[in-house]
Amino acid sequence: MAIASIDLAAQQRRIKPAIDAAIAAVMAHGGYVMGPEVREFEARLAEFGHAKRALSCGNGTDAIALPLMAWGIGPGDAVFCPSFTFAATPEVIPWTGATPVFVDVLPDTYNLDPAKLEAAIAATLAEGKLAPKAIIAVDLFGQPADYPKIAEIARRHGLKLIADSAQGFGCTLHGQHPIH
Ligand SMILES: Cc1ncc(COP(=O)(O)O)c(C=O)c1O
After folding, report:
1. Assigned CATH topology for domain 60-164
2. Is pLDDT at 180 greater than 70 in this prediction?
3. Which residue has the higher pLDDT, 114 or 5?
4. Cβ atoms of residues 178 and 163 within 8 Å
5. Which atom in ligand 1 lies closest to the alpha carbon of residue 85?
6. Cβ neighbours around 63 below 10 Å, total
7. pLDDT tens string 52-75
């Protein structure tokens, strides 16, 4: 018997009545863009993630690209990211014209190694070709990155920090939601 590694149709069958009802409700009131469901989604996401606010967008890839664009990151800038992650994490960096600088990961969590991050920032500064601007940390396989150490490095070097939590949204570190 063949067993599909990802069977979306089977997943959908479990939740189909709720999806169908939600789609029918949106069709009935006609507020397709930024309607009441979006507001409710954002409010519930913020509550779940212990965040002051949540802003929704089309997908996880856009969610990483949008802050880079908002901060004006572009050609000549270095954005540090883990060497082991889903393709979307580094993919968005060249969209802005900036250059990804890959940083090795820890052997136990597969997440960004803070010591290697520090070394990569120092090497980039010493080389003098790119201006360090931002770090994208990733919560791979649901495990949070080491935000206390990574955020301290970001603060000390004046770098922006993005938490790519596409795989770990809602994860906790020492009993707390890691990013506030
Ligand atoms: C770590 C990580 N970042 C970003 C993304 C991109 O999310 P999306 O597929 O919603 O664009 C994914 C998707 O699997 C991911 O695993």
Report:
1. Aspartate Aminotransferase; domain 2 (3.40.640)
2. no
3. 114
4. yes
5. 1
6. 18
7. 999 999 999 999 999 999 999 999
Q: Which amino acid is at 102?
A: F
Domain residue spans of the chain: 8-48, 60-164
Distance 100 CA to ligand 1 centre (A): 17
Pocket-forming residues, ligand 1, beta carbon under 6 Å: 59-61, 85-86, 88-89, 138, 164, 166-167
Question: Phi/psi at 14 (nearest 5 deg)?
Answer: -65, -35
Taking only Cα atoms into account, the Rg of the chain, rounded to an integer number of angstroms, comes to 19
Dihedral in degrees, nearest 10, Cα atoms 31, 37, 40, 46? -110
Would you call 52 helix, strand, or coil by DSSP? coil
Location of structure tokens 């479990």: 14
- Amino acid making up residue 55: L
